[in-house]
Amino acid sequence: MANESRPCPCDIGDRFDYGGRGQEVQVEHIKAYVCKPPAGSDKAVIVIHDIFGWQLPNTRYIADMLTTNRYIAICPDFFVGQEAWKPSNDWASFDDWLKTRDAGKIDKEVDVVLKYLKDQCGVKKIGVIGFCWGGAAVQHLMLKNPHLKTGVSLYGVIRRFADKHSLLHPTFFIFGEKDDIIPLEQVKLLEQKLKQNCKVDYEVKIYPGQTHGFVHRKREDINPQDKPYIEEGRKDMINWLNKYL
């Protein structure tokens, strides 16, 4: 039984009734969702999913949105076949579940995806975005991977890399003001540490009134007051990628 007294805090908003415009492919040992713009492109964005995995319709919707902005988008299964988290799971078991899915140990899979994009898709410039678990993974990659040009971390769990701030590439951090997972004091501390240690461009932006997952997890028509911030977050993400890719 799920722990109803403490439901999964990431389970916010509706899943989109959305099938996707791309296709699933096998990239060496990883499955991935890939969508390409009709005119082709030499720029790509790796989309790193949240705890609900690579098949979440909401995430594929964002990947397809990147394609309409002339990027090849690829969302690999960074859990490599392990089950994604389900809202019905017992939240008390989450920490044990997470131990076998480390956002800081995806380098092997990222290397495979980079090779695929360059060899099979003719890509020359690659960025990365990620949500929640994937947002933490973006920060990890921005700290160490020389082959990526830029990243956007959307409500990435700060405590995962709380002591590491020397980013290699321009990075944009998106947070919601009312995020129960990431308190504002953590965001402020991140900003302070980046100011002290970071030598590349970065931005930390807090969106008023927004909860965890607002950019990709909510349907715009649920709460009309949230719609401008959802749209703003998506536009900011695209603008950042356009600037650095």
CA radius of gyration:
17 Å
CATH topology: Rossmann fold
Give the C-level CATH assignment.
Answer: Alpha Beta
Count of individual domains: 1
CATH superfamily: Alpha/Beta hydrolase fold, catalytic domain
Strand order of the largest sheet: 1-2-4-3-5-6-7-8
Number of helices: 7
Number of strands: 8
Helix fraction, binned, reads 25-40%
Q: Which residues form runs of ≥5 with pLDDT under 50?
A: 1-15
Succession of helices and strands = EEEHEHHEHEEHEHH
Shape: globular
Largest sheet: 8 strands, mixed
**Euclidean distance between termini CA atoms:** 46 Å
Given the helix and strand composition, which structural class is it?
A: alpha/beta
Strand content: 15-25%
Average pLDDT metric: 89
Instruction: Tell me what the CATH architecture is.
Output: 3-Layer(aba) Sandwich
Subcellular location: Cytoplasm, Cytosol
Protein name: Carboxymethylenebutenolidase homolog
GO cellular component, one term: cytosol
Keywords: Cytoplasm
Short description:
It is built from 7 helices and 8 strands.
Descriptive terms for the model:
single chain, 245 residues, Rossmann fold, 33% helix
Describe the fold and architecture:
The protein has helices spanning 57-68, 94-99, 107-121, 133-144, 184-197, 214-217, 227-244, and strands spanning 23-27, 30-35, 43-48, 72-76, 125-131, 150-154, 171-176, 202-207. Helix content is 33%, strand content 19%. The longest helix has 18 residues, at 227-244. By secondary structure, it is an alpha/beta fold. The protein has one domain (23-244): Rossmann fold, CATH 3.40.50. The chain has seven helices and eight strands. It has an eight-stranded mixed sheet with strand order 1-2-4-3-5-6-7-8, sandwiched between helices. Mean pLDDT is 89; it is low at 1-15.
